[in-house]
Structures are given as C-alpha cells and as structure tokens.
Amino acid sequence: MFTFNENSFIMKLYHFSLLFCSLLLVSCNQKKETHTLKGNSSNEFVLSFGSCNNQNIPNTMWSEILKNKPDVFVWGGDIIYSDTYDMKFMKKNFEQQKNDSAYQNFIKQIPILGTWDDHDYGINDGGIEYSKKDSVQQIFLDFFDVDTNDKRRKQQGIYYAEKIELGKNSINIILLDTRYFRTELAYDISGMKRYTPNKYGKGSMLGEKQWTWLENELKNSKANFNVIVSSIQFLSYEHGFESWGNMPHEVGKLKMIIGNSKAKGVIILSGDRHIAEISKDTINGLNYPLIDITSSGLTHSYSSYSGETNKYRVSNVVADKNFGILKFDFEKSKVKMEIRGENNQLFESFTQKY
C-alpha cells in the first residue's frame, strides 16, 4: 500500500529545484564560442588585422581600416607597449588604450579578437620565464571584456579559437599564444644577428597542452577557412630576430599538423616585425600553398629598413605604417590579401585560390 509522506516529498522537490536552478545558471553563464557575424554579403567576409600599437602615439589607422568595411578586427600582438613587472602600470596602459576615443569609436562598430606579443605580455622577447604572466593574462582578458566564466580565465595561456558562421559558410580563427610556454632562445654569439636557430629538438614554442589543442582544433575543423594568428612570423626567419625559425623542429611540427589535418584554407597571420610582407610555401598533404601574411605596425614602423632575405617572400616589403585586409570569397573559394596604410593606400595585394 502506497503511503504519501508530505515532508519527504517537499524535501525532494526542494532539492530538485536547487539542482534545476544550478543547471540553468551554469547554462546561462557559459560563453558560446560560435558567433554569427554579418558579412558584406552571404558569400563574402572581410577580416582586418594589425599589430604593434604604441598607446602613447596617436593611431590614425582606425578610420582607414573602417573604409574597408571589415566584419572583424584581429589584434596580432603588441596592443600596447608596457615592458614591466608593475601590474598597476600594466593595467593603466591597457586602460589608456581601451579608453582612447578613436579606438572606442572603432570597437563600437567592429567585433574584436586578439592575441598578445612580447610588449603587451610584459617583457621584450619574453617567454616562459616571465614571472608576471598569470597576472598579465587576467589584465589582458579584462581588456577584451572576457567573461569571468570563460575557460581562458582558468587555463594557462590565452590561446583560443573563435568559429564565425555565415549561413552555410564558416571561418575558424585560431589565436595562438607564442609567449606563455615559449622556452629559451639561442643568442647569436657572432653578433651578426640577434638569435640563431636552437639545436634541432631543443625548446618549445607552444607547450604540450597548446600543441594538443591546436592539433585537435585543425583536425576537427569543418570550416571553409582556418586562420591561424601567430604573433611572430612563421615562414620568414632569415632575419635573425624572433620567429618560429628559431626552433626549426617546431616549424616542422606545425607544417606536419596542418598537412595531416586536411583542414581547408589554412592561412597564417603574423606581426611583430614593424614591416609587412607576404610569404608562401608548399606543405606536404595540402593541395594549396600556405600563406603567412605579416602586418606591423599600426603606429610606428621599421622606417630604416634596408633589406633582408626571405626565400618565401612573394610581395614587396612595406616599411610604412600598415594594416592587413583579407577578403574571403566563399563562392569562388579564394582570398584576396591586402596590405594598406595611411589614407587607405594599397601597398600590396595577393590573391590565393583554395
């Protein structure tokens, strides 16, 4: 015979209500990583990007970038220049950039993504050894208004991927962290260059967890295009400054992962150098070339540039202030890559079919 126990029923109902509310709260607070952004048309998407922005120098590029009607802007690193161990000073510099009137006008119109490089990380050419990296990570995420429940708030490093869906088409933007885990570089004792390549197999650019994450991100991607954002150059390395070429085994590893993944339309964006150029190489396993397009810098450039070797270069080097524009044509499966500058001047253009 069934006996109704009112107290027992009420307690069970109470616990169920608490569980339901908790699940609802978690669901509401979770940040979705798939966004729908409106392109210029159903078959086109415009990505703008740039790097090396000194917060103490007026940035005249924001209005020029807007002339290209971008659907998103991607910071390639050095959002500010703040080499310091003083976190109050670091936060002040990020807030100065964030509150800049021209930048405020820009971000009200354009979604923003980004990674860091050495000067907004906190130390010139810095890597894993920088003791304030965890503190800067939170300040950096505050700059982007990243939700307190976002996984980047708890993980080591700021690496992150954002899938942008446009109807039946999509772009996966993969933002690498080439600072948090990067181990020691080898100085060139001859004095001819700043760095010389590490002994093959020595050192890590991304760290074990980030490498695993990146491999899965590419392998599982169904996007039409996969844009990898690396603060430092990937293909160009002969200059002897910071680049992936300082760890040749890591270059080989990334090429192998890209080739094995069969990911569509992989493109690398880079900054750091205070110049702009476009490089191209063939990768085993890919039926299209790998492009590394470098854009740097937004407020200052390598104006005394007199030449350097890059066997992969397919454009002229731009030593004026600049920004990058990528125009994705989904219907024709091609990308027009542009380097532009003040007055929206077109310096270089390169189109790749995928």
CATH fold-level topology = Purple Acid Phosphatase, chain A, domain 2
Proportion of helical residues: 25-40%
Low-confidence stretches: 1-36
Tally the helices: 8
Overall shape: it is globular
Could you tell me the strand content as a percent range?
15-25%
Average pLDDT rating: 91
- Give the biggest beta sheet: 7 strands, mixed
* Main sheet strand line-up: 1-5-6-9-10-12-11
User: H/E series, N to C?
Assistant: HEEHEHHEHHEEEEHEHEEEEEE
Q: Mind telling me the CATH superfamily name?
A: Alkaline phosphatase D (PhoD)
Overall radius of gyration: 22 Å
Task: Provide the CATH architecture.
Answer: 4-Layer Sandwich
Q: How many domains, in number, for the residues?
A: 1
Q: In whole angstroms, how far apart are the ends?
A: 72 Å
CATH C-level: Alpha Beta
Structural class: alpha/beta
Q: What is the tally of beta strands?
A: 15
SSE topology sketch:
Elements: H1 6-29, E1 34-36, E2 44-50, H2 61-66, E3 72-75, H3 87-98, H4 101-107, E4 112-114, H5 118-121, H6 133-143, E5 160-166, E6 169-175, E7 186-187, E8 195-196, H7 208-219, E9 225-229, H8 248-261, E10 266-270, E11 277-281, E12 290-294, E13 323-329, E14 334-340, E15 346-353
Helix pairs in contact: 3-6
What does this structure look like?
There is one protein chain. Strand 11 and strand 12 (290-294) form a beta hairpin. The longest helix is centred in the N-terminal third of the chain and has 24 residues, at 6-29. The protein contains eight helices and 15 strands. The N and C termini lie far apart (72 Å). It is of the alpha/beta class and 354 residues long. Residues 1-36 have low confidence and may be disordered. The chain has a single domain (35-353), classed as Purple Acid Phosphatase, chain A, domain 2 (4-Layer Sandwich), CATH 3.60.21. It is globular. The strands form three sheets. The chain has a seven-stranded mixed β-sheet, covered by helices on one side. Strands 4-3-2-13-14-15 form a six-stranded mixed β-sheet, with no helix packed on it. Strands 7-8 form a two-stranded antiparallel sheet.
